[in-house]
Amino acid sequence: MKKGVLITLISLLIFALAQCREEKKEEKNTLLAEAEDIYWLNHADSVAYIGMETCKTCHANVHQTFIKTGMGQSFGAATREKSIAEIQGDSIIYDQYQDLYYRPYWQNDSLYVQEFRLRGKDTVHNLRQRIDYVIGSGQHTNSHLYHHQDYLFQVPFTWYAQKGKLDFPPGFEEGNNTRFSRPIGLECMSCHNAIPLNFVKGSTNKFSQIDQGINCERCHGPGELHYKKIMAGNITDTSREADRTIVNPKRLSAQLQFEICQRCHLQGNAVLNEGKSFYDFKPGMRLEEVMAVFLPRYEGNADDFIMASHADRFKLSKCYISNPETFSCTSCHNPHFSIKETNLLNFNKQCQSCHGEAPNFSCSAPAKDLIAQAYNCVACHMPSSSSTDIPHVTVHDHYIRRPQALYDKLVRTEKEGKRFLALEAINAKQPSNRTKALAYLQQYERFSAQEQYLDSAEYFITKTHGSLKEAAYLWSYFYFLKSNLPALATYVDAQGAENVLLNLKEESFENQDAWTAYRIGQAYDAAKNLERAEAFYQRAVKLASSELDFQNKLALTWFKQGKIRQAEEGFLKILSGYDRHQEALNNLAYLYIREGNLAKAESCLERAIKFYPDYELAWLNWANLALQKGEERVLKSALEEVVRINPTNQQAQALLNTRF
User: Fold this and answer.
1) 608-614 mean pLDDT
2) Which helix or strand (DSSP H or E) is residue 94 part of?
């Protein structure tokens, strides 16, 4: 063959290959565009969730494997079958800050925890609480919840699976033990369990019923429309077109698949868009349509990460950055199969698609090291590490990189330290000033009360130009956290209190208008403008009737105004809905003492102190009650408890010194 002809053929071949690549690229882009453009009929608000048991009737095989996954095991009743905790008779944890012991134990198939305090050999406090639910798959932890009069709370003990250790839950350590009062609300439940359909609007943590376990509809969307269609015999040939009555993540672009995963695996400071709730995200949407999730960024980052930050860490990886249209969580994880039952080769296969053939995948590490790690790519390139938010736990860092790069960064960090830069929205490119303001307010309130967060919040609030209602929400939130109630009252006066009140009229899952009214009520309460405080408290209660603290403030305002019977009815109403509300019990006791109804006062205080043994105001009222009854020994004991709880209480100390 002549040389010229050969060159021509090679040129034609190159042209043909290039054209083929372009056609494939164009075809791929077309498919991605179609994946983005599919309108899923089950996104409509009218389509109901039907539960995994209904899905199971047609998809039994998938159900059988899914329930063994971490998601399928995420939540359940507190039974021996569900719990992984190795609880023995001597399984006890001790809170040195509050001098309280916790002993979980089984009674038949029911799990309980005993909280007690010792003084010498005497038990001076003893409280028993039944556990209703276990939260956590058991791969890392089992934590525990109780459901009392429909209100859901966390219990102060967790079992850490990897170390086989009983300890306090994350956030309860180092003097932060909130005992039995940490509310578990819509945000928590919307990731750790099925879509919480029985959440009571107008509350923080009230659920009329609790589902058990993340289910199919978490990733496929509500199933009612699809189920009715199939039951009617209307079958779509999915080899030819999408069945738009149910989201099939395989038909989504890699990015939209990623959005499903990062709804719960992008843990951080989640700021809802105006008018949105944690119910509003559905598979096939972009998360930023509903919320922006913020994380703090540091100069000289120590490479720390929180437990459920898989999405954030993964997006830092060159593997993802180079292939965002094809590389997603499901490239390595099949959500229908347990990671424990997934063969190592399944993970290595994904690495092989870019990095050469097994067994060494063109890895530059010495052969002896590869053999030592059993050719496990993940072991070196996604090493296990502890998280900053959950003790006694290690998890694979999803920031994929070379071990040397990781080592170099750690060494550099140790030398440089770290300095806070800003909060960064991980999933939203251009969050609004309103969103940024709320991010800093929430960061201060929920994670770390640093003054710089409030400074940043104030800056973004001043740049926000929204409705009067939105402005009142942001400024009331800011001044409330700033503990500057006079400034809040002045701001509302400048806007016109009646005008502000008229704009607060929307019930919502987040209770935004109700919280604005409550905070403004506090400002007028502090200014002793009780009539105006009452008006705002009444609005807060009307919009969020199951927020018991709102009801308590309203009843207390009635009491201050001399509306005693109205106040009594208010406190009793709270206790009929939740009989452990400590302020309502104490306030009602004080009301009865003032009226000379000592028997009823004693009953209220006994209940308050039983559940809250370190409640200073209840012990002060107990001392007041003993003084009224002439019981010197009881008076002395109550005053000693007050001084134990608060050594700076000079009134109690002086009375002890002069009387005893």
Assistant:
1) 97
2) strand 93-95
Helix (H) or strand (E) holding 564: helix 564-577
Q: For residue 517, what is the DSSP state?
A: H
Peptide linkage before 296 cis (omega within 30 of 0): no
Which pTM was predicted? 0.90
* pLDDT of 415 over the 60 cut: no
- Tell me how far apart the alpha carbons of residues 84 and 80 are, in angstroms, rounded to a whole number: 8
Q: How far is CA 268 from the centre of its chain?
A: 9
Rounded to whole angstroms, the Cα distance separating 433 from 226 reads: 40
The secondary structure element, H or E, covering residue 628 is helix 616-629
Lowest-confidence region among 314-323, 364-373, 497-506: 364-373
Q: Which of 178, 173, 85 is nearest to 135 (CA)?
A: 85
On whether the CB atoms of residues 552 and 587 are closer than 8 A, the answer is yes
| Rg value, the chain, Cα | 29
Q: Spell out a b/e string for 437-476, using b for 16 or more CB atoms within 10 Å of the CB, else e.
A: bbbbbbbbeeeeeeeebbebbbebbeebeeeebbbbbbbb
| pLDDT on residue 46 | 95
Instruction: Give the C-alpha separation, 497 to 491, whole Å.
Output: 9
- Please tell me the least confidently modeled range out of 249-258, 267-276, 387-396, 633-642: 387-396
- According to the model, what pLDDT value does residue 25 have? 43
The dihedral built from the CA positions of residue 80, 85, 88 and 93, taken in this order, carries a sign that is negative
d(CA 177, CA 173): 6
Reported as a single tens digit per residue, the pLDDT across 82-106 is 999 999 888 999 999 999 999 999 9
Checking if the pLDDT of 411 tops 50, the result is: no
Phi-psi region of 164 (alpha: psi -120 to 50; beta: other; left: phi over 0): left
Phi-psi region of 653 (alpha: psi -120 to 50; beta: other; left: phi over 0): alpha
The first and second tokens of residue 340, run together, are: 């424990």
Q: Token pair for residue 275?
A: 């008018």
In this predicted structure, the answer to whether residue 123 has a pLDDT above a threshold of 60 is: yes
Beta bridge partners of 144: 134
**632 with 613: CB under 8 angstroms?**
no
| Residue 659, phi then psi, degrees to nearest 5 | -95, -25
Taking the chain, what is the end-to-end CA distance rounded to the nearest angstrom? 118
- Total count of residues recorded for the chain: 660
Question: Tokens for 128?
Answer: 């028993």
Tokens standing for residue 469: 């209602």
Dihedral, 363, 364, 365, 371 alpha carbons, nearest 10: 40
The two counts, helices (H) then strands (E), for the chain are 27, 15
Most confident option among 367-376, 419-428, 635-644: 635-644
Per-residue pLDDT reduced to its tens digit, 475-496: 999 999 999 999 999 999 999 9
**In this structure, are residues 656 and 643 in contact, taking their beta carbons and an 8 Å threshold?**
yes
